[in-house]
């Protein structure tokens, strides 16, 4: 007998039903036993005196009148009888369930679950609870048309009867003791059929811990196998040259920048394979940290690649790198989708023979057939936009460079250790000195005109404006003002004093670059744009940003956009133009006006919208947990991670008897099988 047997071995499960169960993800007995209800219905027996109108309750009593079925219309019927509880009599009716008649026998005690109608002193029955002792909690499962609640419940009961003894513990004993966790066999049963709410709470507590712990064990395993990679590269950079480089920067690094630079350099130097996530709020100065890492790599004779999501951004990064590096010392190149074929050939050749030290490009850079002479470091900016497949792509190409992921979307810690649990995390939690927080206000669309008038004072002081719009064209479905319309309007509004330009995603890259260039050179003072400027654009002279239909953006995105202003030393403003329809929308606008801290915002966003919305599971590689909840069970996640780390610190845990069951569920079974991918 094994839990791995197919559910088809259970009585009443033929090929058809097995197929229907498989559609719910239930193939083995173990999967059936682990198919937990998503909620429970409280069907504890209540007393007539303590219940309210329209409350769903279970009432126990003696049947005192013979059940009568009235049929009317096609297939419609009403079953009625009376029950008595402590001398009080009430009516019970069931609609369209005439067959229940046999279960109501005069003089016998039964329990009926239904909705109480206080005025009529009647119970609208939903079901008659079977057996002598009705369960207090009825499990409710996600089911399909082909598999009904009761069918599933019956199958699970049978499976427990036959296979319950096969359920074994998979956590080491010391963890059960330390956290007073319910043993696995008991917990699995109590997840389905708890004797009382308390037992169910304890079962759930155990299951949540187990889910997080097993996940973290696998993550830590992955981390270990990445680290111990024998062919990782030790990038022995030239300390003296690196020092000279940092001293040549136009500013002193912040304490946080120094700290993360040290963390990165340590990884570069060591032979272990770097997988590091660099988080830093917009404007915290990640680019210069990337530049230092790339420079270090170059001094050790290796090549570096910087990948970014858009061509504009790639262009801009090359420029700022060239400014920072002494161009004579570091040879850089730009490679994007719009690089001309001839130039492309030259660059590819120079890359292959090692003439290029640092290459900047969109992520196609890694995917295309690009050969490096000696790739040592890959940095990706705005990592979340790439998805999670780069490591795989790199591995498939036989490359094992150190990898640094940079992101300006501050990820709440709970999500970071889940989605990126196999990575080390560095955080820049300090802004360069002298920054004045962006002043954010929220206005209604009808206040737009006066606010545009107010902005004239900023323009008069020589500053520039961004106006951000969510979509480029009128769509029937969404009543969104399109960028072109706003552009036309603003051109008229500010004529003849100021120049307005328009930038949107449908333009050719060349055109986009020209427009960005003009804005940078202050040839135009107002830039109307769709979200193409979302990441990375650096025009310190722009001090005002209007965001139209701001309620359509996520908090993280609004924060990103807002980061485009306030990059200089002057006061700057972000104006959210929005008329949110509901409370949550209003709340989100309000939070934006109250904090400029990206971490606070993302925690809040997570609270308001949940991890699925904030992240998009597929894109982020964020796993879906069955029972555990990333928001509500955050503390358990932390504990589970710590414990998993502790286990992996024991070099030989895999050989220790007390961990044998754990190893069996956590470790890849087949040679060559990896944890993910
Ligand atoms: P991020 O990429 O993190 O959003 P950037 O690297 O683009 O931020 O830096 C934002 C601005 O701050 C740039 O103009 C950069 O030159 C400047 N900067 C970076 N580090 C410092 C520092 N330590 N002191 C002063 N200015 C800095
Ligand atoms: Mg940046």
TrEMBL record:
Annotated SMART domains: DEXDc, HELICc
Name of the featured protein: ATP-dependent DNA helicase RecG
Keyword entries, A-Z: ATP-binding, DNA damage, DNA recombination, DNA repair, DNA-binding, Helicase, Hydrolase, Isomerase, Nucleotide-binding
Source organism per UniProt: Enterococcus florum
Signal peptide (from-to): none
CDD domains documented for this protein: DEXHc_RecG, RecG_wedge_OBF, SF2_C_RecG
Family per similarity comment: Belongs to the helicase family. RecG subfamily.
Class in the EC hierarchy, top level: isomerase
Gene Ontology molecular functions: 3'-5' DNA helicase activity; ATP binding; ATP hydrolysis activity; DNA binding
Classification lineage: Bacteria, Bacillati, Bacillota, Bacilli, Lactobacillales
EC number: 5.6.2.4
GO-annotated biological processes: DNA recombination; DNA repair
Gene3D superfamilies assigned to the protein according to its UniProt record, in alphabetical order: Nucleic acid-binding proteins, P-loop containing nucleotide triphosphate hydrolases
Gene from which this protein is expressed: recG
Catalytic activity: Couples ATP hydrolysis with the unwinding of duplex DNA by translocating in the 3'-5' direction; ATP + H2O = ADP + phosphate + H(+)
Domain Helicase ATP-binding: 267-428
Source organism superkingdom: Bacteria
Domain Helicase C-terminal as annotated: residue spans: 447-607
Annotated function: Plays a critical role in recombination and DNA repair. Helps process Holliday junction intermediates to mature products by catalyzing branch migration. Has replication fork regression activity, unwinds stalled or blocked replication forks to make a HJ that can be resolved. Has a DNA unwinding activity characteristic of a DNA helicase with 3'-5' polarity.
Residue stretches spanning the membrane: none
């Amino acid at each position: 007998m094994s839990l791995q047997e197919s559910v088809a071995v259970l009585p009443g499960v033929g090929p058809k039903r097995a197929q229907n169960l498989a559609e719910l993800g239930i193939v083995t007995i173990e999967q059936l036993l682990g198919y937990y209800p998503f909620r429970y219905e409280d069907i504890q027996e209540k007393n007539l005196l303590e219940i309210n109108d329209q409350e769903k309750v279970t009432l126990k009593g003696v049947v005192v009148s013979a059940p009568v079925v009235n049929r009317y219309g096609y297939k419609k019927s009403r079953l009625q009888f009376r029950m008595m509880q402590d001398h009080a009599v009430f009516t019970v009716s069931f609609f369209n369930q005439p067959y229940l008649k046999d279960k109501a026998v005069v003089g016998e005690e039964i329990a009926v679950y239904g909705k109480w109608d206080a005025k009529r002193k009647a119970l609208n029955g939903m079901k008659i609870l079977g057996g002598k002792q009705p369960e207090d909690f009825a499990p409710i499962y996600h089911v399909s048309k082909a598999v009904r609640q009761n069918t599933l419940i019956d199958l699970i009961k049978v499976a427990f009867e036959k296979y319950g003894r096969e359920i074994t513990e998979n956590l080491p004993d010391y963890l059960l003791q330390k956290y007073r966790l319910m043993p696995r066999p008991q917990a699995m049963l109590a997840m389905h059929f708890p004797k009382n709410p308390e037992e169910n709470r304890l079962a759930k507590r155990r299951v949540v811990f187990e889910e997080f712990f097993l996940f973290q064990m696998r993550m830590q395993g992955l981390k270990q196998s990445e680290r111990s990679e024998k062919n990782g590269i030790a990038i022995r950079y030239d300390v003296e040259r690196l020092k000279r480089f940092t001293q040549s920067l136009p500013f002193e690094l912040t304490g946080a920048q120094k700290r993360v630079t040290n963390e990165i350099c340590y990884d570069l130097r060591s032979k272990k394979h770097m997988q590091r996530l660099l988080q830093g709020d917009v404007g915290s100065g990640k680019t210069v940290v990337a530049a230092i890492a790339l420079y270090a790599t170059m001094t050790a004779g290796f090549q570096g690649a910087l990948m970014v999501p858009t061509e504009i951004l790639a262009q801009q990064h090359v420029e700022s790198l060239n400014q920072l590096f002494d161009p004579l010392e570091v040879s850089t190149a730009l490679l994007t989708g719009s690089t001309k074929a001839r130039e492309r050939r030259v660059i590819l050749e120079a890359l292959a023979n090692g003439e290029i030290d640092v290459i900047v490009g969109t992520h196609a850079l890694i995917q295309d057939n690009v050969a490096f002479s000696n790739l040592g470091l890959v940095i990706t900016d705005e990592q979340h936009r790439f998805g999670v497949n780069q490591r795989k792509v790199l591995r498939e190409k036989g490359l094992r460079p150190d990898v640094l992921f940079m992101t300006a979307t501050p990820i709440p810690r709970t999500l970071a250790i889940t989605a990126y649990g196999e990575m080390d995390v560095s955080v820049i939690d300090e802004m360069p000195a002298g920054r004045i927080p962006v002043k954010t206000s929220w206005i209604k669309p009808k206040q737009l005109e006066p606010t545009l008038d107010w902005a004239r004072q900023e323009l008069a002081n020589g500053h520039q404006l961004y106006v951000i719009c969510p979509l480029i064209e009128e769509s029937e479905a969404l009543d969104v003002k399109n960028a072109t319309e706003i552009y036309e309007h603003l051109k008229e509004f500010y004529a003849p004093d100021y120049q307005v330009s328009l930038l949107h995603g449908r333009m050719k890259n060349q055109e986009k670059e020209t427009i960005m260039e003009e804005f940078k050179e202050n040839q135009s003072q107002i830039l109307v744009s769709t979200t193409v400027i979302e990441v990375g654009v650096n025009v310190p002279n722009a001090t005002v940003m209007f965001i139209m239909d701001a309620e359509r953006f996520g908090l993280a995105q609004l924060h990103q956009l807002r980061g485009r202003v306030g990059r200089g030393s002057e006061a700057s403003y972000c104006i959210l133009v929005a008329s949110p329809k509901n409370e949550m929308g209003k709340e989100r606008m309000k939070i934006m006006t109250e904090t400029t801290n990206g971490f606070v915002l993302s925690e809040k966003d997570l609270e308001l919208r949940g991890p699925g919305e904030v992240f998009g599971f597929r894109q982020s590689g964020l796993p879906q947990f069955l029972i555990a909840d990333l928001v509500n069970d955050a503390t358990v996640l932390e504990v589970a991670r710590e414990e998993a780390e502790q286990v992996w610190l024991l070099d030989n845990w895999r050989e220790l008897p007390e961990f044998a069951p754990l190893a069996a569920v956590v470790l890849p079974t087949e040679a060559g099988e990896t944890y993910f991918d």
